[in-house]
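Protocol step 4 of 5: obtain the predicted structure for the target chain.
Materials: sequence only (see below). No template structures provided, no constraints applied. The aim of this step is simply to have a reference model before the mutagenesis design in step 5. Sequence pasted as it appears in the construct record:
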Amino acid sequence: MTGFEVRLAERRDLEVLMEIEKTQFPEPWTTGMMLDELERTDTRRYTVCTEEGVVVGYLGVMFSDEGMHINTIGVVPGHERRGIARTLMDDCWDHLVARGVRQATLEVAVSNAAAIALYYSYGFAPVGIRKNYYEATKEDALVLVAEIPSTLAEA
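Step 4 output (structure tokens):
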């Protein structure tokens, strides 16, 4: 594969995370929201994917009694389809298995075929639609759920 590395996101990454948010999402999180997410390490896990020390993507998840929810994932424009999101998801899956999390959920825009294909490859399956979920675009969200294997051997 490539020379990607994954590490926990830090406050120093905030500026680049916000740049990615603003270029990737019609309703980007505010700086305050992202900072709050980064600081809530008891129930959140934010990771960045770096290449030669430069952040090229990130993934943020939230843990609850029900399992894990993917809050956000983004890749720097121009770096799509290079395996960055998959690298982040692989790291996340390893963490979930080690942590004993049994179920993952997320919402994704129904038009985002590339993301949906990625999620399907991790065993996510549709369980519903949230109508007009994305306020800025009025687009529906596909609700996906995946069962997490108890060991990587089951994955």
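Step 4 remarks: Residues 4-154 form a domain with the Aminopeptidase fold (CATH 3.40.630.30). The chain has four helices and seven strands.
Proceed to step 5.
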